């Protein structure tokens, strides 16, 4: 049986009992709830095609199809639940190279998704670009919001540019934007915000959805000057394993900024832990 | 003597668009990482000296750079019965997976808060004991839990507690392991389903 829910004073999170995926987020302070499905997918990296020889690479993101492939395949996500006085978490295993901990700590008004991705398998000869995608019922009208370069949040509109008439040739890559600290979608009442702990690419490919690219491993150079594919290896000569966090906040549009502005600062200038055996001799100045 | 100029140099080099966007060859990326790591090391010495001066006590300060993957030789070793191994000279112990760490019955956690407002932060440290007593800078007990890791995972379970630190300041927490007979040992309250 898959875990059903975790909660703290501020947030309750429901999981699909059959698939183990995230199913709904509830903001208990505001009595609002939003169906939210979240999972990991991979875009098959283009190696060039009849329309364009451009391959996906270090400079270029170009999937060879607009439909990403689910990491967990058709399998359900295996999960297990940990609950104690300080934290409630659901450990999700999407595949041997993709897992996530959905965590609610006592007193924190947001949901933490700690994802671990890699080594990305490429034995099938396909480069892969891994995304974490959120799907909701928000009527977003082709709009989403990203902070480009961390300075200001800009409104993005799918297949549109405010400063010139865009004829979209890349339905996915042409709608990806830099995300340095946050991306959010909203309708007239509710806003779903995701804070990142590093710069990532992000977009909203269809209404109500939001996605962030967390890892890439490619097999071809994109012919823009690097002269080698983007395929970083770890010390073990396997593909790099990457771990990071997404903080997810559900709030009303009016009060969303109160929360994400302070939290993004805490994420960017996180406190620093230093350890010591303790009981050392006193330090005499001079 | 600590020295922040090494990190400043490394960050200056990493202003290149290749370093920012990852469009360099792999060996160049490795060199950027090497320079930044050397910068971190010499800055950690500087931070250790500052903490010793500010906290008034010399310590083998340890910076566990791999806490995000639950690796910290000091906290993992702190649960074993203490052996004769002495500490390392100086104020600062090298970090890294094989850093020789004295086996001590307790350890201290310093949390530095770089923001201009008070901060509460979740601490998560790999240990291999099952119960600990945590006290805050005022000597007050802090609720803590040792949360069972994934089934069949290595024996280092995460010790969790919520730490707070003043604006632009630091707090020192003392962590000591409880033996099974210790009356302060709370019943394990963690469920794993």
Topology overview:
The complex is a heterodimer of chains A (286) and B (193).
Chain A: E1 5-7, E2 11-15, E3 22-27, E4 32-44, E5 69-70, E6 78-83, E7 87-95, E8 98-105, E9 111-117, E10 128-136, E11 143-148, E12 152-157, E13 177-179, E14 182-186, E15 190-196, E16 200-203, E17 209-217, E18 242-252, H1 253-268, E19 272-276
Antiparallel strand pairs in A: 1-2, 2-3, 3-4, 4-5, 4-10, 6-7, 7-8, 8-9, 9-18, 10-17, 11-12, 11-14, 13-16, 14-15, 15-18, 16-17
Chain B: H1 5-13, H2 17-21, H3 26-55, H4 73-77, E1 106-113, E2 119-127, E3 132-135, E4 141-142, E5 144-146, E6 157-165, E7 169-177, E8 191-192
Antiparallel strand pairs in B: 1-7, 2-6, 3-4, 3-7, 5-6
Helix pairs in contact in B: 1-3
Provide tags for this entry:
heterodimer, A: 286 residues, mainly beta, 9-stranded antiparallel sheet, globular, B: 193 residues, alpha+beta, 4-stranded antiparallel sheet, 8 strands, 25% helix, 24% strand
Count of β-strands of chain A: 19
Radius of gyration of chain A, in angstroms, nearest whole number: 20 Å
The chain pair with the largest interface is: A-B, 45 and 68 residues
> Number of helical runs of chain B?
4
Q: Radius of gyration of chain B from the CA trace?
A: 19 Å
Q: State which percent range the strand residues of chain A make up.
A: 35-45%
Largest beta-sheet details of chain A: 9 strands, antiparallel
Mean pLDDT of chain B: 81
Describe this structure in words.
The complex is a heterodimer of chains A (286) and B (193). With 286 residues, chain A is mainly beta. Chain A is built from 1 helix and 19 strands. Chain A has one helix at 253-268, and strands at residues 5-7, 11-15, 22-27, 32-44, 69-70, 78-83, 87-95, 98-105, 111-117, 128-136, 143-148, 152-157, 177-179, 182-186, 190-196, 200-203, 209-217, 242-252, 272-276. In chain A, the strands form 2 sheets. In chain A, strands 1, 2, 3, 4, 5, 10, 13, 16 and 17 form a 9-stranded antiparallel beta sheet that branches. A 9-stranded antiparallel beta sheet of chain A has the order 6-7-8-9-18-15-14-11-12, with helices on one face. In chain A, strand 16 (200-203) and strand 17 form a beta hairpin. The longest helix of chain A has 16 residues, at 253-268. Chain A is globular and about 65 Å long. Chain B is globular, with a radius of gyration of 19 Å. In chain B, helix 1 runs antiparallel to helix 3. Mean pLDDT of chain B is 81; it is low at 80-102. In chain B, the strands form 2 sheets. In chain B, strands 1-7-3-4 form a 4-stranded antiparallel beta sheet, with no helix packed on it. A 3-stranded antiparallel beta sheet of chain B has the order 2-6-5. Chain B is α+β, with helices and mostly antiparallel strands and 193 residues long. Chain B has helices at 5-13, 17-21, 26-55, 73-77, and strands at 106-113, 119-127, 132-135, 141-142, 144-146, 157-165, 169-177, 191-192. At the A-B interface, strand 6, strand 7 and strand 19 of A face helix 3, strand 1, strand 2, strand 6 and strand 8 of B.
């Amino acid at each position: 049986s898959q875990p059903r829910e975790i909660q703290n004073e501020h947030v309750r999170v429901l999981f699909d009992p059959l698939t183990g995926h995230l199913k709904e987020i509830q903001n208990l302070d505001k009595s609002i709830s939003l169906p939210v499905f979240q999972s990991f997918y991979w875009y098959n990296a283009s190696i060039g095609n009849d329309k364009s020889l451009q391959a996906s690479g270090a400079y270029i993101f170009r999937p060879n199809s607009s439909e990403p492939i689910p990491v967990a395949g058709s399998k359900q996500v295996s999960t297990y639940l940990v609950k104690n006085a300080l934290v409630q978490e659901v450990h999700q295993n999407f595949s041997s190279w993709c897992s996530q901990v959905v965590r609610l700590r006592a007193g924190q008004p947001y949901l933490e998704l700690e994802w671990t991705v890699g080594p990305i398998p490429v034995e099938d000869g396909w480069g892969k670009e891994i995304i974490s995608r959120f799907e909701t019922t928000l009527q977003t009208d082709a709009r989403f919001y990203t902070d480009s370069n961390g300075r200001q949040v800009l409104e993005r509109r799918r297949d549109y540019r405010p400063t010139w008439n865009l004829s979209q040739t890349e339905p996915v890559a042409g709608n990806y934007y830099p995300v340095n600290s946050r991306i959010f979608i909203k309708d007239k009442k509710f806003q779903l915000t995701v804070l990142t702990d590093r710069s990532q690419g992000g977009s909203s490919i269809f209404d109500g959805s939001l996605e962030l690219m967390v890892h890439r491993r490619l097999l071809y150079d994109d012919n823009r000057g690097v002269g080698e594919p983007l395929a970083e290896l770890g010390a073990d000569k396997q593909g790099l394993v990457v771990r990071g966090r997404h903080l997810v906040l559900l709030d009303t549009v009016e009060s969303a900024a109160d929360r994400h502005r302070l939290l993004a600062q805490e994420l960017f200038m996180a406190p620093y832990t230093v350890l010591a055996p303790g009981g050392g001799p006193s330090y005499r100045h001079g | 003597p600590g020295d922040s100029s090494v990190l400043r140099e490394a960050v200056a080099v990493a202003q290149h668009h290749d370093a920012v966007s990852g469009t360099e060859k792999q060996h160049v990326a490795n060199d950027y990482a090497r320079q930044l790591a050397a910068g971190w090391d010499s800055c950690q010495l500087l931070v250790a000296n500052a903490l010793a001066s500010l906290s008034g006590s010399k310590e083998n300060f340890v910076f566990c750079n791999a806490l995000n993957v639950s690796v910290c030789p000091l906290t993992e070793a702190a649960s074993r019965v203490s052996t004769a191994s002495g500490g390392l000279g100086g104020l600062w112990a090298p970090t890294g997976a094989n850093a020789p760490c004295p086996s001590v019955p307790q350890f201290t956690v310093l949390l530095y808060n770089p923001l201009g407002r008070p901060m509460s932060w979740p601490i998560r440290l790999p240990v291999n004991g099952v119960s600990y007593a945590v006290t805050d800078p005022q000597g007050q007990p802090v609720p803590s839990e040792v949360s069972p890791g994934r089934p069949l995972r290595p024996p280092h379970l995460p010790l969790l507690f919520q730490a707070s630190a003043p604006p632009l300041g630091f707090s020192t927490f003392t962590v000591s392991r409880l033996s099974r007979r210790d009356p302060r040992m709370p019943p394990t309250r963690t469920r794993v389903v």
